[in-house]
Each structure stands twice: as structure tokens, then as C-alpha cells.
Amino acid sequence: MGFFDSEIVQQEAKQLFEDYQSLVQLGSSYGKFDREGKKLFIERMEGLMERYRIFMKRFELSEDFMAQMTVQQLQTQLGQFGMTPQQMFEQMNLTLERMKAEVEKTS
Fold first, then answer.
1. What is the DSSP letter of 59?
2. Integer distance in angstroms from the first to the last C-alpha of the chain?
3. pLDDT tens, position by position, 40-97
4. Which DSSP letter does residue 3 get?
5. Distance CA 44, CA 32 (A)
6. Quick check: 102 and 39 in contact, CB under 8 A?
7. Does residue 97 contact residue 45 with C-beta atoms inside 8 Å?
8. Helix 85-105 to helix 65-79 angle, to the nearest 10 degrees?
9. Is the separation of the CB atoms in 70 and 58 below 8 Å?
10. Cβ-Cβ contacts under 8 Å for 2 (sequence gap 6 or more)
11. A single Pfam family, by name (predicted)?
12. How far is it, in rounded angstroms, from Cα 24 to Cα 3?
């Protein structure tokens, strides 16, 4: 069975995408959130990033051709911006850390 034939993989991908879309939509109102709302949003985004990092690691470790192609596509796309997947995650974490620091300053 191929990597993408797995119902678990399909469900996790679908859930990650839906959760990401919801957070992005919610994040458009981030400036209107109170302090606790901002902290909760950041926590949820950190959780999502960790889930995404684990999901991508599964792709990297899989010997499935399509999984490897997906990793290659991501590397190529990020490479166009001069970034690696590791740098992408580091940049996301840095952004979330800055957001946390900003929330702490307003207390």
C-alpha cells in the first residue's frame, strides 16, 4: 500500500489542512483579541506547527515514491525562496516567539 493510500495519512492531512485554514481565518482578527485570546491563538498555532513537523517527518522517513516526491516538491518550492524545510519551521517558531514576547509586554 502506498503512503497516500493510508486512511490514517489521508485523515491527518485533511485535519491538518482544515485546522490550518481555521487558524488562518481566525488569525485575521488577531489584533482584536484580548491578551488571553492571543496566548490561546499562539498555543494553537504552535501545536499545529508541531503536528505539521511530525507529518512531514513521516514523509521524509517513508520509502514510498509519492511521499519522497512530495518532500522533493516542498524542498523545490521553498528553495525558490532560498529556504529549506528546517528553516521554514525555524522561521515560523521565531515568529511565534516574537508574538509571545509582544503579548507578555502588554501585561
1. H
2. 52
3. 999 999 999 999 999 999 999 999 999 999 999 999 999 999 999 999 999 999 999 9
4. G
5. 17
6. no
7. no
8. 60
9. no
10. 64, 65, 66
11. DUF1825
12. 27
